[in-house]
Amino acid sequence: MATPTATAILWPEHFLPGLTDNYVSNEVVVAGLSAADVWPYLADCSHWESYYDNIGQITPPPTGSFFTAEAVGNHFSFATFGFPPVEVVLEEAVAPTATTPGRLAWLAWMAGADADNALEVYHAWIVEDAPWSTADKKVVRVLTQESQIGVPAKNLATTVPNPMLLGHQKWLDGLISYSKEKKENK
Question: Does residue 1 register a pLDDT over 50?
């Protein structure tokens, strides 16, 4: 029996993977959690610093720290990977359901940066129950991908190992551990 095709990121043409200066993809598939168990801690930026130590100075959008479809278009900011806070606009925020994936995506850039320091990124997430997940045996798939444009992105892409790849894996692993802890403590 063939495994069903996994849900993919909806890329803006400007950020298509392979056509930008740096691209990373990280994914986990974990038993014992559902998309509903994970989504609240990804979609609410007030939790991020609790499980990911490479992020800080988070200024949530005016609609609050929880990202919803109504918040799409709102601006927020945060600092990460040693860069000063980046400006961010929420592009997609769709909570998962039993039959559809959760989608979270943002466009980020370094405001006021000169050409040598300018960085533009599109960061997207998928959170979904695996097709083989059942009521008795939950399995969640979390995918995060980022496509970057600019001199800093070119520098990151040539660094071995790629710090974006490692950093995003740390974010995923922290999200999963945090979600498990919260589920156990309910």
Answer: no
